[in-house]
Amino acid sequence: MNTRNRILEAADELxxxxxxxxxxxxxxxxKAGVTKRTxxxxxxxxxxxxxxxxxxxxxxxxxxxxxxxxxxDGTVAERIAGMFGxxxxxxxxxxxxxxxxxxxxxxxxxxxGHPAIAVASRHKKCFEQLFVELLRSEGVSKAxxxxxxxxxxxxxxxxxxxxxxxxxxxxxxxxxxxxxxxAHLKRSQALPGRRDLPRxxxxxxx
Amino acid sequence: MNTRNRILEAADELxxxxxxxxxxxxxxxxKAGVTKRTxxxxxxxxxxxxxxxxxxxxxxxxxxxxxxxxxxDGTVAERIAGMFGxxxxxxxxxxxxxxxxxxxxxxxxxxxGHPAIAVASRHKKCFEQLFVELLRSEGVSKAxxxxxxxxxxxxxxxxxxxxxxxxxxxxxxxxxxxxxxxAHLKRSQALPGRRDLPRxxxxxxx
DNA sequence: GTCTATACACAGATAGAC
DNA sequence: GTCTATCTGTGTATAGAC
Lengths: 206, 206
Fold this sequence. Notes:
CATH architecture of the largest domain in chain A: Orthogonal Bundle
Number of domains of chain A: 2
Largest sheet of chain A: none
Oligomer: homodimer
Helix content of chain A: over 70%
CATH topology of the largest domain in chain A: Tetracycline Repressor, domain 2
CATH class of the largest domain in chain A: Mainly Alpha
């Protein structure tokens, strides 16, 4: 494995475990088995390394959740609820420390223009798009709207688990996901002609 | 105002704005108009000050949400949806930087025994208990369960808004809250007294 | 590209006077 | 209780050799 990836691997382990501001570049360089000068040859700055750390984390995270979804049979509601059940198990690992993207955004809230925040935002939007596709494949109306709700449930559950170390929040969130998806299935069946109407008031501001 | 409170006020402003690890005790002391030595006379350590900062933040936060709830009429579902609508407005302030408790827990995920995490957990449990009481007062079944779901929605919405700067997540979370509460309403109690009011707060001016 | 060595600022925390 | 002055470790980042 090349030097840059060794550094990234060390950064991933330490940034995720201890938080991005708690970890020094010295520590990362030491763990990667290189000197600080080599680290700064491969990355312009620590901020640059932080953004690269999140960037490298995005695809594996999405793949994991996609795999969890595929491990279940049934309706899309049941399979997404299953995803939340998998999260509950996953979170019990002693290495689990919440969502690296949300935690980075929380730490960097005082640095609005930080490149890592843009990476985190992009990752979450990709995740939301995954939900959109899953929902559309079963004809859920207003898939974009419901996908936003699922993202809220997912990140909310992760936050509560991180604060309380109470894994039941994943289950109640999964239950909520199921209720919400089924509610929109009923609505689309009850009002078949209105499924494509835009919703005023929930329009995004990007 | 006494010295301790002046320090706490400065800490609140800086910790919330920039994050607890980004702010030095020097900066806080300077803002409070005292020397570092005085700060260390009033607080044993920076960790101690962080815990005190969150402790002082808890009651005002709960009061604010309680006040938002009371500003609305209608069913408990509608009033809680109204709370989420208020959050959307509140979050648009340039000083808003998400939930101080969740952000502190995110920053301190690498320091499991930190006293501030216990404070954050206690605060969130108080908040959840507030939801329990509101739900029970209108005969929602499984109030504890639904209150957990509402906490997930609240902290999830805050997380998404912080990451994307997209305030619509408060609205979709409020909508989800309403759907979930109504799904758990005891129909024997809910149907006779149920009014068909418009939903305040979820269609605010955007 | 990777090394040794170091610049320079700032972190948390303390000593001791008054 | 609040001050001035300071200790000690560590932070990000860079210079220049090979």
